[in-house]
Design brief:
The protein has 8 helices and 7 strands. The protein is an alpha/beta fold. Helix 1 links the parallel strand 1 and strand 2.
Amino acid sequence: MELDGVTVLVTGARRGIGRALCERLSREPGVQVLAGVRDVAGFAPLARVEPVALDLGRPASIATAWPALEARGIDVLINNAGQFTAGLLETQDLGKVYDMVQVNLTAVIDLTHRVLPGMLARARGKIVTNSSVVAYANFPAVTTYAATKGGASAFAEALRRELAPTPVSTLHIVTGGIDTDMLDETKAQLAPHFPGTESWDQHTPAEWADKIVAAIIADDAVLGPGGKAALGKLASHLPRQVLDTVVGRAFQR
């Protein structure tokens, strides 16, 4: 996809992958980058990046923000925002689970539903959805998070097929270990059940943002995690006993 002259909305842009994407996209000539954040005043300024108030945890915030966003003509939507909670299912905070489902899945569907009519009318657009390797490697202690990311992956793939006859395309991102605050939270919450989290394979947000932007430009349909995380995605195509055996050796209830 040619990026010159397009308007890109990145959700979850305050930190981590979202901020790295804003930084990377701002270096592309002619791109208008909108950074979706809960607190505009708290967003550290970036050259050629405009923060917009967008709290994906509150459906009313999406509805309130939409008229102004629609007027901007969003050409690329990057559904990047995410939340994480983990632990044995019976110990997870249901309030946090509901919030996570809203941010990781419902808001993705909501925003995509809103941007598609304009993209189709302009005969140009791309929907980018950030999922996770756990959508394919369904590990214990991440039951609810894996469910949201599995839903996001299914949504991305079904939408790709639905939009195939149109000028609007999709990119399904399968993210592995990226050195972000969320990964630190993940390690802390999973440490009691998976000793050795400190040795997990990980890359910088800037490295991952480079790959995402390259995939957008190349019109790739899927961007896989690479490295050790790619083995987790591969596990979904193997007999379940293989993953059961690997998990059984590492997991502590």
